Amino acid sequence: MRKPTVRTRRLATLVIGPTAILVAGLLVWNGSNAAFTASTRNTGNNWETGSVTLSDDDLGAAAFRVSGVVPGQTGSKCLVVTSQSTVPGQVRVYVANLGAQGLEGNITVSLQSGTGGSFADCTGFTATATLPPLSLSVINAGIHDYATGVLPWNTTGTPGEAKVYKATWTFDVTGLTQTQIDALQGKSTSVDVVWELQSS
Q1: The model's pTM
Q2: What DSSP letter does each residue of the chain carry, written as one string?
């Protein structure tokens, strides 16, 4: 048997070294693949904002549009406010856009919230909370935004929740002289009543 030449021995060394490293790597890889594995997944995660929506049953009409008002005259109207919101919140009532044309200190308004009745008819209305009669000028000064709003109604976030509100107005001339009453002829006033819902 011939002894390998020096050249053959060198070539064998160059081939055997890398081959041994490759075989060892394959053994480690196979060992890794042989481990037990398990996983779990919670799929379909998603975030969507809720919505806040209010509507009422007045069909865009003003609750009060009264002309020819005389001292002592009074009237009432009911309004159903409905929340279509999908998140809990609180509804508050306030006034805006007071038109001060001379009667704002003499038209008093009492506002109640409760159940029963509708825009066309207050029959069956039952009050659960009441704002006592105040002149429009006083209401405008103190109840003019959400922060100062009154008659809070906490909604649960279930679409279709409703609350009925009853407003009673009076042309109040209590304590005025006949001259002062006569001076109110031809005067007027106007105001917007706002129901605002903010989410909790």
Answers
A1: 0.74
A2: -PPPPHHHHHHHHHHHHHHHHHHHHHHHHHHHHTS------------------EEETTTT--S----S--TT-EEEEEEEEEE--SS-EEEEEEEEEEEEEB-TTTEEEEEEEEES--SS--TT-EEEEEEEEEEHHHHHHHS-SGGG-EEEEEE-S-TTEEEEEEEEEEE--TT--HHHHHTTTT-EEEEEEEEEEEE-
